[in-house]
Amino acid sequence: MIPRLLTNVHDVAKAKPQSAAMARRRNNADALAASPTLALAILAVFLAFCARSASAVGSTPHSAFSYKDSDPDGPSKWATLQKDWAICDSGTEQSPIDVAKVEVSKDLGPLENTYKAGAATVQNRGHDFMLNWKEGNGKLTLNGKEYTLLQVHWHAPSEHTVNGTRFDAEMHMVHEDAAKEKAVVSVLFSTKAGKPSKLLGDLVPYFEKLTGKQNATEEVKDAVDPAVMIDKASGYYRYEGSLTTPPCTEGVIWTILSKVSDASAEQIDAVKSEDKTEEPNSRPTQKINSRVIRYYEGGDKESTAAPGPRRAGPS
């Protein structure tokens, strides 16, 4: 292709700014090449911006913090690591909590969802395993608002406790509405009965493949239906809290199923195997302050395995 020749003054006038712009770009490139310190400074600012952006949506890289309190980036120091993590210490509605005193609430009802089976992947995020669906996976309706299910992950031992009792593991089903507000459904697991979990049994092979492989992902062979993760007959505890990882954003609606699910010791070990050391990945419980925990009894009262909280009376 033959380049078009400049045939008039108008073309020449348009070409001059382009030449000047090219010259500026060359000068900028030369300046960066001559100043490695400046280039590194620009890179540092860019990475810091990315980290803040990730924190804003609750997807902070797991390499940015630790669960060991003795570490310089452990839970008691999260608030000091970044400015927008300060609420991890100063917040008054932080999670997790100990579920102890509750109010039986007659205005709560069974959980409504439109979950559906779909193709999913499992990712090793460094501190946990995350289950994610490739396409939409349904919604949860709370207080007339729809929350889309984003992902599911596990903590071992459990983050929430009931009357001071900590369970072997806890599954978080993380949802988000159109305004980016979060709602989390929590399922507690116990090995006390010695019965395996079908859900965990189906996923353990993928946990094992991903052990020690941070950020690696495996496709799940069969479709995964999140509807089977929630026992519709179970009661639940409802309160307002926060994300349990930095930036500890508050305003999260928590729903903790009161019926504890069974799991085998081997399955719990697999849940903890993301980094081969099987270290805990649970944040310590936080002060409840003036918050009220509401309780919906559900239809299967006899099989509620969680210790029965003291009831402050109906609301």
TrEMBL record:
Pfam families: Carb_anhydrase
Record-annotated Alpha-carbonic anhydrase domain positions: 63-297
Region: Disordered, residue numbers: 269-315
Alphabetical keyword list: Lyase, Metal-binding, Zinc
InterPro entries named among the record's database cross-references: Alpha_CA_prokaryot-like, CA_dom, CA_dom_sf, Carbonic_anhydrase_a-class, Carbonic_anhydrase_a-class_CS
Compositional bias per record (Basic and acidic residues), positions renumbered to this chain: 269-281
CDD domains (UniProt xref): alpha_CA_prokaryotic_like (cd03124)
UniProt cross-references to SMART domains, sorted A to Z: Carb_anhydrase
GO MF, one example: carbonate dehydratase activity
Cofactor requirements of the protein: Zn(2+)
EC identifiers of the protein: 4.2.1.1
Reaction(s) catalysed by this chain's protein: hydrogencarbonate + H(+) = CO2 + H2O
Family label: Belongs to the alpha-carbonic anhydrase family.
Summary of the function given for this chain in its UniProt record: Reversible hydration of carbon dioxide.
PANTHER family according to UniProt: CARBONIC ANHYDRASE (PTHR18952:SF262)
Name the UniProt record assigns to this protein: Carbonic anhydrase
Native organism: Urochloa decumbens
